[in-house]
């Protein structure tokens, strides 16, 4: 199956009609039908039968569909990369980050990088940890900043530093009158915090156990920024990372968490990938800013 035939086949499988597939590929219906016929002739078996104006995939088409989708995704990735290369000699740098470093560190990192490399095209992604790994593996990001340092062998990890946890409170909450908040203070509160099992939740659970306490969240979140609206609405107090710039949000305040565990911030890359010069420059800027802003690596 040739590349164009693969493209047509996957389009028809997704849409179910010649008209819809032709529109999605921006070609005429007769042209698409001709490509499909040639494909079936070369394969030696039918891929579709017609039923009430729609194309019904044959058993053979269903058998090869998953592999065709995988190959088509690879082809699309190759096309994106060749398009990126056509952008010029300056190149393209794709960097991804979870929300806390994306809001607190990445703006200054990109600003410093832009002053050194004004002609490089920058592309940023903000996503949770699982999506960051997928972006790296798909080639849609060359570097990622994540609040974890436990990865599979195909992901290279460089620990940049650590942050801690804080308590996010409504401004009028009684705990806001204290200089800090302890795990014991939280025992009678409705707590908003990370779901289990995640790295932040594991660290909080361990820290509370060391004091003979149980850390329990009555409202679980996936990413820390989602706690803002819940706290503003009076649903409880949140235990979240101290990296995100919480002062930007109205109606809430933060207090340090006593005996807070550390939470690592890491730079992730593919273990077998060689960075371009432009990407190495971005890595340098990330390292330099994190060395100033974060607590040192233990």
Question: How does this model look, in words?
Answer:
The chain has a 5-stranded mixed β-sheet, sandwiched between helices. It is 42% helix and 21% strand. It is elongated, with a radius of gyration of 25 Å. The longest helix is centred in the N-terminal third of the chain and has 27 residues, at 59-85. The protein is built from 10 helices and 12 strands. It has helices at residues 3-15, 18-25, 29-43, 59-85, 99-104, 106-116, 129-138, 199-210, 227-232, 277-293, and strands spanning 48-51, 54-57, 92-97, 121-126, 143-146, 155-163, 165-170, 191-194, 219-221, 237-241, 252-256, 263-270. With 298 residues, it is an alpha/beta fold. Belongs to the LysR transcriptional regulatory family. Residues 1-58 form the HTH lysR-type domain. This is LysR family transcriptional regulator. Keywords: DNA-binding, Transcription, Transcription regulation. It holds the Pfam family LysR_substrate.
Write the layout of secondary structure elements.
Elements (H helix, E strand, L loop, with lengths): L2 H13 L2 H8 L3 H15 L4 E4 L2 E4 L1 H27 L6 E6 L1 H6 L1 H11 L4 E6 L2 H10 L4 E4 L8 E9 L1 E6 L20 E4 L4 H12 L8 E3 L5 H6 L4 E5 L10 E5 L6 E8 L6 H17 L5
Parallel strand pairs: 3-4, 3-5, 8-9, 8-10
Antiparallel strand pairs: 1-2, 5-12, 6-12, 7-10, 7-11
């Amino acid at each position: 199956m040739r590349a164009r035939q693969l493209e047509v086949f996957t389009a028809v499988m997704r849409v179910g009609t010649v008209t819809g597939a032709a529109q999605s590929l921006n070609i005429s219906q007769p042209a698409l039908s001709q490509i499909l016929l040639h494909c079936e002739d070369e394969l030696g078996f039918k891929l579709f039968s017609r039923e009430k104006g729609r194309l019904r995939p044959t058993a053979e088409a269903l058998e090869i569909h998953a592999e065709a989708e995988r190959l088509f995704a690879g082809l699309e990735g190759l096309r994106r990369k060749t398009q990126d290369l056509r952008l010029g000699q300056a190149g393209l740098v794709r960097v991804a980050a979870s929300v806390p470093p994306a809001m607190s560190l990445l703006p200054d990192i990109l600003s410093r990088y832009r002053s050194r490399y004004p002609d490089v095209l920058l592309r940023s992604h903000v996503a949770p940890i699982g999506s960051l790994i997928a972006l790296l593996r798909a080639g849609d990001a060359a570097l990622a900043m994540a609040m974890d340092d436990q990865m599979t062998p195909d992901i290279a990890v460089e620990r940049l530093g650590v942050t801690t946890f804080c308590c996010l409170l409504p401004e009028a909450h009684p705990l806001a009158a204290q200089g800090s908040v302890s795990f014991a203070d939280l025992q009678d509160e409705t707590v908003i915090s990370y779901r289990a099992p995640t790295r932040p939740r594991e660290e909080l659970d361990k820290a509370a156990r060391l004091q003979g306490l149980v850390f329990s969240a009555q409202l679980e979140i996936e990413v820390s920024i989602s706690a803002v609206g819940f706290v503003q609405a009076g649903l409880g107090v949140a235990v979240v990372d101290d990296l995100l710039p919480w002062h930007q949000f109205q109606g809430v305040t933060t207090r340090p968490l006593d005996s807070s565990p550390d939470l690592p911030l890491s730079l992730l890359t593919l273990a077998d990938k060689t960075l371009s010069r432009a990407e190495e420059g971005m890595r340098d800027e990330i390292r330099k800013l994190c060395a100033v802003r974060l607590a040192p690596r233990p």
